Amino acid sequence: MPDCFPAALFLPGDAFDTDSRQMMGRRVAGRQFACAMASQLCAGEELTAITIGADDPAGLQHLLQPYLPAGAGLRLMPGFDLHRLAEVGALHLPDPGLGHWSLLRGATKAHAFSLTGVIHTLCSERVLNALEDLLTAPLHPWDALVCTSQAGRAVVEAAQDQALERLRRRFASPHLQRPEGPQLPVIPLAIDPTPFRGDGDRQQRRRRARAELGLPMEAFVACFVGRLSFHSKAHPLVLYRTLAALARERPGVVLLECGHLFNASIAAAFDELGAAFPELSVKRLGGLQPATEASKVAALAAADVFVSPADNLQETFGLSLLEAMAAELPLVVSDWNGYRDLVVDGETGFLIPTADPLCAPHRPGALDALEINYRLGFVDYDSMIALRSLSVVVEEQPLLGALRTLRHDPGLAQRMGVAARQRLERLYSWRAVASQYRDLWTELARLRQREALRPQAPLSPPVAAYADLFAAYPSRPFSHNQAIRSEGATPPALLRSAMTAAFMQSLSHQRLDILIEHLQHHHDCNLSDLEALGVPPADAPALLAALIKLGVLELP
Fold this sequence. Notes:
Strand content: 5-15%
Distance between the termini: 49 Å
Helix content: 40-55%
């Protein structure tokens, strides 16, 4: 029997499918994560992947099969089998909502398996509520929310601190402490650098890519890869202004943009901006049709420097920076959240200072008008993040100085690019990151084993159950375990009618045809009969009650 990989991965299509769904950072990250874990399996080890959509298993099999080492296996599991989760030991989720997923442990021991998740964009109200929920949800030291950057972890901790302070005031309990779990380890995202290495050395790849893209060999090319969005990624004006100033000093500067323009209005806005700086040559790969992976590889190969003046609260890590590091490029990027974890200023590139009035000294807990209007629903999410980013200053003179330095000193640019690639391979390769996850899951297993030796407290539901909340609604509970068919009963075949079929399929756990055949040949039905048909014992009473309600059966 194969050994279990120490965590089952929940991988719905929304978490990894970049082929039929919109290209988004979290999906790219989820795809890379799944491939990384598959590639690092040991011989005789089996990875459990949980899916929910009808097309997800085939897509996941197609994605992961090429990365499985010899002797390793993949088990695709539709839905959540609690026995299997306990056997594996941990469930890893592609989001930070551990409190939401703690429902899975509501009918089992709290230490039956660990819950781990990962952060992505943190600034939406839904995600912030999930972070605050970490404080009060039934979570433990053997659970963990992986933070991909130090700045991201600071957001998670601040959300919990604010929630804790509100609880202290609400219950007049100033000494109330934060619970022990979940843990908040910092583990970065990772990429496979292989596609960005290509054949030959860096200069050979550069010459081939420039010839392919029609770029002058002598030009200074600054490359931006990512969403081409002024409201949700990086307002490009400071970059255009800086590169135009560099071009006025000496012509031959090219801004190479590679990404996706989400609609015609955004495309027109970028074109208008470009027209305002005629001294700057702008070449775009992608656009209204997203740039291909091949275009991205070519763009990074052709460039002299990678640039990203990110200014948006949506940014948490910066996968595109890892791709630039894999391509041996120096990075000139804003000193903004997760970017500062990736770039060693002066060694692998330059961090450009940023300033944000949102972070000026203020009364703790104070909300400004924009936040109040967003949280009340009067301002939409896109407008909120756009307004926030518009007031983030990316300092222009340090940006110009960094680009000027790299333009005038190609040797420095080359050394920084090599150092960036070495840093990537050391810290952000699949092997390095998969090893950190293994260590985390091993430590969580040790904590679960220690908990198993302690006297067990009775189970408590993770949320207020409907059974308790609505107990006063009916005249009495339904407590029957058997019913019969009478001469004037509703024909079982009517369970296929449009009004009932979908619901009966669900109640019978997709065994409606088998149930109808059974009812047509038997004059009574009890809970044991329904369980024999494949209905779980916990769900059989509801199905029996529905059959009585619809007149197919009646009480004896």
